[in-house]
């Protein structure tokens, strides 16, 4: 089957750039899915008690659990400069590693408080890595929410790992982006069935399996918010395989086809490997598309998944996009998806939340995708909403999850229809 692009896509349309008040989670949230993925890593947030409460609430950690993240609390004396924060940090790291000998990678994660007092965690990571080598490698990245949106936490983490990856001259495929293990296994099985390999993953599940990178490495992104990681890998000599992101049947097929073309896979082999899962994906999406077809869509900038998801919802589910907002618009990464997104919706980058709320209220879309802080007020005004953060926490990539992805958007519309029906019954 040949996939036809629209007559005019959105790659070159004028972008509405907004700079104002924003409504987003901070980058510390990314630790929740990263610590589940990287099985021998530990994420130590250097921050306040508010940071600790955020992580515990987001992860739902039980009091008797032993998670692989924690917070080195900056007290008032630290913030006032009355204590040597580096000395205290060294002591906390030594205590942590003595209690948890299974840790092979330790990430010092910056926060708003640590950045305010100008604590140099990069230098601290270098010092601690030399002290605890070779058993533990210490790296650092920032999860501060001062200037970032929440998915940039993963981007900063992976970008921090790239300079430490071993060099290689081997021709290898690198899959970049944290996926649930079951989804990653599906992708690796499809690539293996086509004869593509060796395939490495960043992040790897264990430190000993960390990929190497060099001038013969080609990489495919699985998440659209990895701009810094893309740049870091390019600086190491690796080459990006541009493709739409693997959301839905079409996106997954085009992503796989781009990789297959890079490795010289024949059309016959490609079709033989993908035919059955493609058919399952098409059927699963069709079961949800009746609810979505013809409905209007308004996307606030939140997760950076907005452009590829808009492409999926308009082309495979029949929705009509009114505005597609994204915190950052990286054209080298999102270009293939923008080519497939038919011209029509407003494409906005950044946020001025009050102005965007005015546009959403004027448009009265059937479905609004936004952050948690906006969802309840908009619901109270009669708009149907979808939490953007759920799209990051839920397995949504590749063929087998295509129906689940469509269902995430269909479910709030069905809920609204049931509520309206109940109100009519009550009124009668």
In short:
The protein has 428 residues and is an alpha/beta fold.
Account of the 3D structure:
The protein has 428 residues and is α/β, with parallel strands linked by helices. Among the domains are: 16-22 and 277-427, Nitrogenase molybdenum iron protein domain (Rossmann fold, 3-Layer(aba) Sandwich), CATH 3.40.50; 27-148, 3-Layer(aba) Sandwich (Rossmann fold). It is 46% helix and 16% strand. The chain contains 17 helices and 14 strands. The chain has helices at 31-37, 49-59, 76-79, 85-99, 112-116, 121-132, 152-161, 181-193, 227-235, 248-262, 267-292, 306-315, 331-340, 353-363, 372-380, 390-393, 402-427; strands spanning 16-19, 41-47, 69-73, 105-110, 137-142, 172-176, 199-202, 217-221, 239-240, 296-299, 320-326, 346-351, 367-370, 385-387. The strands form three sheets. It has a six-stranded parallel β-sheet with strand order 1-12-11-10-13-14, sandwiched between helices. Helix 2 links the parallel strand 2 (41-47) and strand 3 (69-73). The longest helix has 26 residues, at 267-292. The radius of gyration is 22 Å and the shape is globular. The N and C termini lie far apart (51 Å). Its EC number is 1.3.7.7. It holds the Pfam family Oxidored_nitro. It catalyses: chlorophyllide a + oxidized 2[4Fe-4S]-[ferredoxin] + 2 ADP + 2 phosphate = protochlorophyllide a + reduced 2[4Fe-4S]-[ferredoxin] + 2 ATP + 2 H2O. One of its GO terms (molecular function) is 4 iron, 4 sulfur cluster binding. Its cofactor is [4Fe-4S] cluster.
